[in-house]
Amino acid sequence: MSAAVSIRPAVARDLPALADLERDGFACPWSTAALEPCLRGDDHLMLVAETAGELGGFVLFLRLPEEAELLRMAVASPLRGRGLGAELVRAGLDRLAGEGRPVCHLEVRASNRAAIHLYERLGFRLAGARPGYYADGEEARLYRREGAGPPPG
Ligand SMILES: CC(C)(COP(=O)(O)OP(=O)(O)OC[C@H]1O[C@@H](n2cnc3c(N)ncnc32)[C@H](O)[C@@H]1OP(=O)(O)O)[C@@H](O)C(=O)NCCC(=O)NCCS
């Protein structure tokens, strides 16, 4: 990842850019109205990657007692494959572990090879599957990560 990228918590002024990332990354994007509550209170952790004043990606976690769930993440199409997604997830996992949440789990579409590759590289392990979980009938894969995971790199 370029040294010019900084990772920080999302704030309200990021909402339009977050909605742009949603539209770029998902067939059913979340609106600013859906994203806004995730910035309030302590239930969620949302981190953004900023480069040259632009948002290049984000990751959203839900805080649960002693663990967390990775709900959503996206990186702008032109910036994918450069490690930005991994850097965002790593930063979130470090923060959550520091808060006493060393376990993280997530659901991902079985066809999402890029996301699955990223998660496995960061130490997530397949923990189950839910056939027909998504509205279009696709299977969800359940992944779980405990502890420190593999070293950075
Ligand atoms: C998933 C996503 C966030 C990854 O972001 P990213 O910045 O490209 O992630 P990284 O560059 O850190 O890692 C991606 C890895 O997947 C690999 N990859 C990319 N496309 C792949 C594919 N089709 N099959 C297998 N691996 C693939 C990359 O080579 C890279 O692996 P490497 O680091 O070992 O080379 C991005 O693809 C995205 O925004 N997708 C749309 C939204 C989405 O699917 N979000 C996840 C579900 S919530």
The major β-sheet equals: 7 strands, mixed
What is the name of the CATH topology? Aminopeptidase
Shape verdict: globular
- Strand element count: 7
| pLDDT averaged residue by residue | 94
**Count of discrete structural domains:** 1
Question: What spatial order of strands do you see in the largest sheet?
Answer: 1-2-3-4-5-7-6
**CATH class identity:** Alpha Beta
> Which residue ranges are poorly predicted, with pLDDT under 50 across at least 5 consecutive positions?
none
CATH architecture: 3-Layer(aba) Sandwich
Supply Rg. Answer: 15 Å
Number of helices: 4
Could you state the CATH homologous superfamily? Gcn5-related N-acetyltransferase (GNAT)
Bound molecules: coenzyme A
**Gap between N and C termini, in Å?**
10 Å
Strand content: 25-35%
What would a concise description of this structure say?
The protein is α+β, with helices and mostly antiparallel strands.
Describe the structure.
By secondary structure, the protein is of the alpha+beta class. It has a single domain, classed as Aminopeptidase. 25% of the residues lie in helices and 35% in strands. It has four helices and seven strands; from the N terminus they run βααβββαβαββ. It has a seven-stranded mixed β-sheet with strand order 1-2-3-4-5-7-6. The mean pLDDT is 94.
